[in-house]
Amino acid sequence: MATQHTHQEHLSFVVFITAAAAIGGFLFGYDSSVINGAVVGIQRHFQVGPVETGVVVAVALLGSAVGAWVGGGLADRWGRTRSMQVAALLFAVSSIGQMLPFAIWDLALWRVVAGFAIGMASVLGPAYIAEVAPPAYRGRLGSFQQLAIVLGIAVSQLVNYVIARLAGGEVNNQLWLLQAWQWMLGACAIPALLYLTFALVIPESPRYLIMAGKPRRAREVLAEVEGEDVDLDARIAEIQHVVRTQRVPGLRDLRGPALGLLPIVWTGIVLSAFQQLVGINVIFYYSSVLWQSVGINQSDSLLISFSSSIINIIGTFIAISLVDRIGRRPLLLIGSAGMALSLATAAWAFSAPRVSRGGAVTLPDPQGPIALVAANLFVLFFALSWGVVVWVLLGEMFPNRIRAAALGVAAAAQWLANWAITVSFPALAAWNLPLTYGAYALFAALSFVFVLRRIRETKGRKLEDMG
């Protein structure tokens, strides 16, 4: 009984520190989706068109790509937790800047700073969680990153809806001296400060501590996360051997014969890109605009966006329950097939809009309900597969010697793909919405082939055995 109680205490501690690290994912989801409710307000306030809107929404993703690119190196120089603290401070400051912009370019600049912080957090969370989680629970604990992302999305949608209702249903209405959309962006500072608080109290990764020449502290952390019944001397020796024989990773360590990079690095890059090329963030960045474009009013469109976020959370819990049972590859294959079918259905549904004499656009029956169901099925299949599994794989698929650097490059590729989809959607949707969704369906089908050919199962393997 005492042994079981001790095991539960260790597991509870691991759950706490991994959940704290995953708050960076919450910021990622919150910042990604909060712009959804503010888009119309920004367009009207600054009187900009779809191209400028796409740039302002997507420019944060370029900052995220840079933050992810350098995040791995910073994590190896400063440590995982210190880097989290820096990311949290940057995000808090940028949230206030986004709340009080004096011009459209000023808003874009603060979104770049916020994106840089989120890019850092997107690397730090999976790396830290993978390094503190026991192998038997690593898949489920690694899923915390995506769970935090979808919770951030849902909370931001709910906050947006509440703020819009308080302002009378219009995001350009005044609310306590500012317009409603400004309060939406400023509210991001609250989770940023929460992230900073937890980053100040969680322990440093044992692998980083050994890299930094602190084996005694590393042993203490390992005892806290894996338990006294584990052979701590053997675990320390195992990690020390890896650290002694392999220097601190840099981008030069990723070089290989496959177009200048190691094949495993290319696998991570393509895996990351596919997660975004299926168009998932179009739903969370632009869904309120999308539903308004087919006849749904502003307030109701925000409520529909929130319902999609709830479906996202349900799918994420499904993935968490299955990722360590059936493995990573089966979940990815199920998700790719489901996304391809639902996106193709949505493309068909969006091909039948009706325009009234007054210029209002609606979708007729049965295309209207089918479009709504297909979009939410797409979110569900993404959440129970690619949303969770990609972050788990990126935290564990690379060899120890290149993990931080390779994760940074792969995450940067994800942000760049996200940027490409986000910046292009307003113009593409205005040109041909059905064809745009058809392209996302094609990428989902190609992701199925990629998983079959390139992804190896990592379930139950030690990080030291990777590569």
From TrEMBL:
State the superkingdom: Bacteria
Q: Which GO terms describe its cellular component?
A: plasma membrane
KW Transmembrane (keyword) present? yes
Q: Name one GO molecular function term.
A: transmembrane transporter activity
* Localization: Cell membrane
Which keywords fit this entry according to its UniProt record? Answer: Cell membrane, Membrane, Sugar transport, Transmembrane, Transmembrane helix, Transport
Name the principal localization, coarsely classed.
membrane
Q: Which residues form the Major facilitator superfamily (MFS) profile domain?
A: 17-459
Lipid bilayer topology: Multi-pass membrane protein
Signal peptide start-end: none
The transmembrane segments are 12-30, 54-74, 86-104, 110-129, 141-163, 183-202, 261-286, 302-323, 330-350, 370-394, 406-429, 435-452
Q: Which NCBIfam families match?
A: SP (TIGR00879)
Q: Which family does it belong to?
A: Belongs to the major facilitator superfamily. Sugar transporter (TC 2.A.1.1) family.
Q: What is this protein called?
A: MFS transporter, SP family, sugar:H+ symporter
Identify the species of origin.
Nonomuraea wenchangensis
